[in-house]
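dumping this here so i dont lose it again. seq + smiles for zinc ion
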Amino acid sequence: MPTCASRLLRVPLCVLLVIAASVLAAETPTPYGPVSLPFKLYQVPGAPVYYVIGHSGVPGADNEGHTSNAGFVVTEEGVVVFDALGTPALGYRLLQRIREVTDQPIDRIVISHYHADHIYGLQAFKEHAGDPPVWAQRQALGYVDGTASSQGEDAQRRLAQRREALFPWVDESTIIVPPDHTFDTGTTFEVGRISFELKHLGPAHAPGDSIMLVKDYGVLFSGDVIYKGRVPFLDSPETDIDRWLQGLDYLSSLEPQPRYVIPGHGRPSDNLQQAIALTRDYITYVRTAMRKAVADFVPFDEAYEATDWSAYKDLPAFEASNRGNAYRIYLEMEAESF
Ligand SMILES: [Zn+2]
């Protein structure tokens, strides 16, 4: 915890910078504070499907917590939102973008998985969009009620960390909104004559990892099962490599193939196989290298140095994640070998 003095020193500078940037951007602050970085809305060609793209990197003051993607589908009877971004202010900005496109009510919000960078924006929808129901895979409940000893990311500790790292965008008034409805293996629904399918592919990157297919338009919201343009994050006790790879196989065999993929992080793609390739190749590469090292009794440090990382070393998040990822997999391989 910072001292009062550090807070006093930090807050005015931080707030001043934010206000200055937001004046430059000429967008009014949200009820949860300003969003000063550009917040551009994109549309999937030929479909009433829209999305915003987060910045690469870990959530911090430089990106104001906007590191993940989110999107929405406009139907004749309401809007289906997928993921809610990493701060209440970002959630509110997303709601504003929706209102620039349609007056339809928010029918529901589907959450790909309960991790801070995808859910803190829910608060804005609950407080400013008519309290729409939130849908998530059942294991989201483990996150909401979780403790440090439960499986998965500890929600309260993460919230405390974000109140530091993302202040003033995440502060004492930021809350974790639980899901109103949950599903197990998956579910389908229809809104305004558009068919949707939710499917649980976790535990992969997180226990509840789920995707949403907008069937009529061949659009796939993949959540963090697919990472694009950066090194995937594997260094977590809740990551399940085998199941993750199975989930990617499932996606790559979908018939008909989705024509457009919006991942949880990184740019969208109109080539599903290509979008899957980085995540799958990376996981497979790390696993193969670490499995061989364990089989040959090579200590981790030595194995890590001896592994050729050239295919990945220039990707964002390589420095931050690669060694931890490799170590996590090494330990897993070691445990398997006993
Ligand atoms: Zn994420």
